[in-house]
């Protein structure tokens, strides 16, 4: 009986062992996808594969087989057929060339295998789906971005990818189509880079040297753009030439990183599409709806959004790492579960063996002891890990306590500093009040003051008020910090309130030619607000807009309801130079001062105070800025405020606590009302001074004796000097951008302005610094503070010396000298001018415009240069040369007087005779008779 049972028991044991073996086998993939990649070289192709693998990490039931064609169409054909014969369920193909691989793709499609084309298409429509970017749109996007950056005018160099590549052809096509809308943009050169920098650098170096007018480079990918930047570094062109690439990949040395480091001005995103290809493949395999054409979008990555994209990519990378860690943990848990399942199965087998065979009991007990030992080891390991975690928590707690102590210490230090500044500010109010009071009394009750005296007293009052306003801002800052600033809101018309503040800026804006616009959606917008607080907000915003908006610019104040009428939005937009990307993250910080160019620096409190006051009103102050195009600040306020912020009981009538803003000196001259005080003098003096108060003071003092124009920075001053050709220049030394010494150097190097005397003003008083100014070419070096009378006398002396030099040049242009030896810039100018006139003496229609065009300057510049060097007009100079030449021709008996007249460009012999007689007191015939001996 037992003998007969043994085979049955053994059969059961064998069956259980078979089941155990089946349970321990790994699951085979449900679907197999074949991927034929044209090439695995380059970060963009690697990013495509990485995207596929990232998406597949969520789908362990998918097996992906990747084959690299290594940019060989024949190899890719063979690999596609190999994947088909291998029994894949779906094909993803990124073709190297369209035509050669089309037959293999069609063959797979006809066999019923779904085919997804990735990034590039074939020459046939026999495919299941397409995933990829639009290269034509990439080129068009680049053209539009360049037109905005270069303001629709400039010269471009294009770096192409591999010839014959569809990406190269389509990006070039889109770029050409985009540029066709901007006739001011021209592609002056093209360089083939083959997607790498191997052959790029020599060709690009040669092209840039041949085309120095290039200001923008469009590279078909970021890698070639990086190589172009290195070439520009070697040629010293990185400040003048900007580079735009394509791809916009994350990672070190890729597009986003290059834009963030300033290597590229921008990168056009061209997504690799790996994730989207896998998602489309899963829809096809799972019989779900899908799109046949899946075109990936593109954006421009530049300084305005690169930080956001970098942060998003970092966050995505962090999330991907978390997912991979969780998947690894899940995999380990599955392995643990599988091993435990195996142990349980073996225990079952051991138990059945014990029932069937008594000898199996010992084996089962041994196995149990082993398992218990393993569990004990696992528990010990868990205890060890728990102890480590407790130790780490204690360290973290200690570090947190240390940080809290440091933070408390920093708060105490800051509190002490703020208390000192607050007390100091209170102490300043008394002497400021004692200064402001008598000045106000003198201005209002002293009718005998002269206009210059009133102007100087107004200057004192304005600067005293400025100091008082800074003190008040510091005190307001202190109130906000300690929570003592209270909002006492009343319901009123916000439109009328803002209009009253805007009206205060109308006069200073008009004086500088700034177009100040106030736009409202409706005439009345009721809201709860504290006017005594909000006036500081809008006054600060409008003061900044007026300060940073250039002459003839525009400031637009808009007021409209928002959030379906629950809020109100007030925006202040200007057309200034904008806020640099490095400053945008700090402009609301207390006492922060960014790069402000030639505009006088402020205290760094205005915007921070405005933001704090807006937050007190439970509102929000935001901004947007595009460097070179302007800034927009937006105040969003709720129309209703909670009961604790509303005023209970009568309130004092609203009084704007801020005075009328002071005008900022114009780069093109002073206000019209001061122009009436100018003298009839023809002598033009150009003042270049960045401090508006000093600029105005110099202008007023000099205007009593000369015509005066002024500029507030070195670049504008040099431009005005070349355009106006003044008789003398007074220039400050310490200026942002272009210093006074650099202005003098450029003036002396330019023949248009080389003759102009320059007086330098500076607070630098050492002998070495004064020597530096004289070596730069200055005629006089005065230190601040200076005596205005001494300055006027010095200017008169320099102008007198210039007049004597002018007489010297006139003597050099004697009747026997046709040209002047070019021994200095002024003499070279006279030599060039003389040569041009002599070459055109026969032209009766020779005009001043023709001569100026030949010299490459304007008519006014030519007139003022000739007047400054010779003391005569251009027409008189031409006439003098003609009459000098006439003396020579009249000695030739073969020419009649009429022929001499026409030879020298006179319109008629009679006009020639009259001109000759007026100049030499002899008629042409009399001159000939006196100088030609009679023939006997």
TrEMBL record:
Phosphoprotein among keywords: yes
Keywords assigned by UniProt, alphabetized: ATP-binding, Coiled coil, DNA-binding, Kinase, Membrane, Nucleotide-binding, Phosphoprotein, Transcription, Transcription regulation, Transferase, Transmembrane, Transmembrane helix, Two-component regulatory system
Domain HTH araC/xylS-type: 831-930
Any coiled-coil regions, as ranges: 306-336, 375-413
Gene3D superfamilies: 1.10.287.130, 3.40.50.2300, Histidine kinase-like ATPase, C-terminal domain, Homeodomain-like
Entry EC no(s): 2.7.13.3
CDD domains in the cross-refs: HisKA (cd00082), PBP1_sensor_kinase-like (cd06308), REC_OmpR (cd17574)
UniProt name for this protein: histidine kinase
Species whose genome carries this gene: Hymenobacter gelipurpurascens
